[in-house]
Amino acid sequence: MENFRKKKMPNIKLRFNVLSVLVYVIGAVLLLQLFNLQIVNGSTYRETSNTRLTRESTLYAARGNILDRNGTAIASNQMTFTLELYKTKLENDILNETILRVINTLEENGDSYIDTFPIKIEPLEFDFSNEERKNTWLKKYELSEDVSAETAFNYFKDRYEIKKEDIKDIRKIIAVRYRITSEGYSSTKSLTISNNISRKSALIFDEQSGKYPGIDVVTSSKRYYPNGSLASHMLRIPKQNI
Predict the structure, then answer these.
(1) What is the rounded distance in angstroms from the CA atom of residue 204 to the CA atom of residue 212?
(2) pLDDT(160) > 80
(3) pTM to 2 decimals?
(4) Consecutive H or E run containing 200
(5) Where do the domains of the chain lie?
(6) Segment (H or E) for 180
(7) How many C-beta atoms lie closer than 10 Å to residue 216's C-beta?
(8) Distance CA 162, CA 149 (A)
């Protein structure tokens, strides 16, 4: 019996030592990972967290329906969908591809997008959309007043590092990138891409959100008058007085 105990003691000590080493190794790995999360990549993860968690939205209560004596609505509400873009940590190429994918989806469903870029390419010819303001606009971006519309167009193509070859695709990407430059956006302040998009587009962006990083669909209601201007002096009361 005594010999059995003597043989068993080394095995217990060996197991204890192995377990101790494992605990130290796991602890060291956890400490390294914690250092990586908080010190090495702390600012990156913090910004990502703020993008996901800190967004302010204003929600307006829908106005009630107005019915005639037969119960037929003469003033009601319609659902509207607004497409917005928030800043995310995307590489430049991925951002450009995402923008092009968004615009193509809108156009496929008959929706338009906000476009303030002052250079036209239709019918495949470069031209300034507003000759009167051309010089002021060129000066703002430190371009010569005698520069051509095509040269100015290529300036923005290079500025946004757009690698597409199709002129129309390039123009779509520039339209959104130009507004980002002009109006700005952040992880908490969105840039409106399109107002009043179709329900079909809204469903696509919601259901396939992984294909459209940074894109958000905002649902709201709009006053609708089925009978047009009928009794408008009574129905169209300013919103702030209701």
Answers:
(1) 10
(2) yes
(3) 0.67
(4) helix 199-207
(5) 2-40, 53-241
(6) helix 167-183
(7) 17
(8) 17
